[in-house]
Amino acid sequence: MTSEFGQVALVLCFAIVPIIGIVLGLNAPGLRSRGPVLVGVVAGIIPILAMYIPKGFVSGPEGMGPRLDNWLIILAGFALLLGIVNVLQNNFKKIARRDSGWFFSVVLLIGLFVTGGFGVYGALSKVGIGFNPDGSPTPFKYMTDWFFQPLQSTIFALLAFFMASAAFRAFRARNVEATILLVAAGLVMLGRVPILEFLAVPFPFLHAAASSGSQALGKLTEWIMDVPNGAAQSGIIIGAALGAASMAIRVILGIERGYLGLGKGE
Q1: What total number of domains does the chain contain?
Q2: pLDDT of residue 6
């Protein structure tokens, strides 16, 4: 089998089958979900086969796996376009009805059109979205550096207050687990700053002991981060991976159909 077979198979699955499903679904609503489920099953199986089957038509440079990856990039572009249309529709409706917070929708749309316009201008003028040939920033780059990044920094700065509030509520020794969390967090925070050297500044005879204590506290902090914290993170990652794998299996087998957006019985 050659790469042409993989190309024909992809076209058959992702072009011919959906068209047939749409035509059949016009007269038989019960068939509307069959085509998308079949496409989802094949799209989920091909990358898995490409990892274990060393055949040119599956995992080769022109095989079904790499070609499907390129097609998914194109689909992501269309999905982004649909997302923009959805944002426009929802915010225009909100502005027309003068719903609560409609002014924020106006600001969002202005930012969307201005930023998108600068990006389109960079593409049409062939200067891109980075810097002009003379080294000056393009309008898109200027907008990113002087508007988007400061706003992003402001949002993250505000999140620090929410994190501090959550930490204050969590760091209460109500039970054994909360006490362990409180002690571990206190040791880690103390190990990240030279608190002992700071306290020993007025007492020169304690400088050596403070330095040794800081080194020991730093090693304890690294142990807490590498061993107990690393084990907990590994468990969380493994659990998330198992959950993602189980969901992928449900989608591949056609059990999970919520992504179709169809009503009951379809």
Answers
A1: 3
A2: 62
